[in-house]
Amino acid sequence: MNIYDFEAEDIRGQKIDFKDFAGKALLIVNTASECGLTPQFESLEELYQEYKDQGLEILGFPCNQFGNQDSGTNAEIKEFCQLNYGVSFKMFAKIKVNGSDAHPLFKYLKKETASLLGGIIKWNFTKFLVDREGNVVNRYAPTTDPLKIKSELEKIL
Q1: Which residues are catalytic?
Q2: Which residues are the active-site ones (predicted)?
Q3: Angle formed by the axes of helices 74-85 and 40-51, nearest 10°
Q4: Would strands 25-31 and 136-140 be described as parallel, antiparallel, or unpaired?
Q5: DSSP assignment letter at 10
Q6: Which domains does the chain have, with CATH numbers?
Q7: What is the reported pTM?
Q8: Residue 136 pairs with which residues in a beta bridge?
């Protein structure tokens, strides 16, 4: 099993096959619209604009499991992200990242990085870096500003 074995519904309701991301570097993030860390959308968008032409895809997954901080509908979340932060990277439908009904992608990401920061996601804006071959290469804490991972990102681009 690897990252390309998954699929997820985007924020507009369309199924996205992760095989479409083969050969790209990925930064996968569980997001929230009403969190103290929500301004990270700005840094994520900045990274995306700087590196998208070199093969970076940022995949945002709204999650309402932490303090009810993303309670809106997918349409409301999409509008919020675009209006407030100019988000143009891929956003997906709201999911769960912990528990028995966690999205299979996040079950996989947690399993692949369990030794780094534990087997659960502790809060919004946990980030997973995936190389161009689909290998999960690192996991970053929610408080890690996305711009602080530029050097690691550049190594895999």
Answers
A1: 35
A2: 35
A3: 70
A4: unpaired
A5: B
A6: 3-156 (3.40.30.10)
A7: 0.95
A8: 130
